[in-house]
Structures are given as C-alpha cells and as structure tokens.
Amino acid sequence: MAKIKITQVKSVIDRSERQKRTVQALGLSKLNQSVEVEATPQIIGMVRKVNHLVAIEAI
Question: Which of 1, 3, 22, 43 could be a cystine partner for 59, CB 3.0 to 4.6 Å?
C-alpha cells in the first residue's frame, strides 16, 4: 500500500469528542505534528472524518 503523510493543521479545541479521538487515533497530538502511515481503507476513512483539521500528502 502507499504511504501518506498526515499533518494536523487546526486545533481540536471546540470539536466533538469523536473528532478529538479520531485525531488522537491517527497519532496526532499537537498542532503541525506529522505522521506517516500506510493508506489503508481504515486510515482513509478516519482522515475523511477529520479532513477539515488535517492536511494530507502522498509519499
């Protein structure tokens, strides 16, 4: 599978608990933090739920 780089670009303050936990499950905890993960269907689904909080780029 391809790898993607996910970067948190907006804060989770004033977001629903579900969105906060999704960002945390992606491995992000701070603003402008990045993680590289495999682009599995589960990860893609999580990114779609919080796409307004993160930036995605293919590696």
Answer: 3
Rg, the chain, Cα only: 10
Of 2, 17, 4, 3, nearest to 54 (Cα)? Answer: 4
Q: Looking at residue 51, what is its pLDDT? A: 97
Domains and CATH numbers, the chain: 3-58 (3.30.1390.20)
17-20, long-range: CB < 8 A, 24+ apart? 18/49, 19/49, 19/50, 19/53
φ/ψ (deg, to 5) at 47: -65, -40
Q: What span, in angstroms and rounded, lies between the C-alpha atoms of 14 and 59?
A: 31
Average pLDDT (20-38) is 97
Question: Which tokens sit at 44?
Answer: 């893609």
